[in-house]
Structures are given as structure tokens and as C-alpha cells.
Amino acid sequence: MTKKFQGKPSPYLTVDYTRLGTISLDEFRQAILTDLHVLEDVHGVEFITAPLLRIKVTDDYGEPHPVRSLGDGKPIYRMHTRHFRPACWDYEP
User: Fold this and answer.
1) Out of 27, 63, 68, 84, which could bridge 23 as a Cys pair, Cβ 3.0 to 4.6 Å?
2) The whole model's pTM is what?
């Protein structure tokens, strides 16, 4: 017997890639793009708000590998996407 969900459903969707194991960034990029196409084409998702991507960075053997700042070499734990600006923001309606 399944348990019925009580209350308001969560607004978040988790896409789980743990079964893929240790993969290259190219393989991960393709998996993300494929899942985004599925969300759009199959599930009808058109918009998202404040997406967050959390990844475990490792070497090719699965051992933790810290990501370091290019400036001072200190480990970084959060990367902001300030470089991305949708083209639609450049036009006034």
C-alpha cells in the first residue's frame, strides 16, 4: 500500500546522477542536456527559478579533488554564474 502525500507538494525536482558513477565533464554535460530536453519536450517544463547545481569534483579514480582559485590558489566551494546573461535582457519590450 502506498502512502498518500499529505500537504503541499515540493516545488523542487531532483535529477539524480549518482548511478553514473565517476564520469568526465563531457559525459556529464551530455547527461544534463539530455535531461533538460526531456523536461522540456516530455514534461512541458518552460521555466525554472534559481537552479542550483551541486557536484562532487574528483579525479579519474573517484578521489576528491579540490577546485582552486586561479588568483590565489585557495580552494573554492561556490561558483557564481555572473558570466551568463540571456540575450533577451538586452532588449526593451
Assistant:
1) 27
2) 0.72
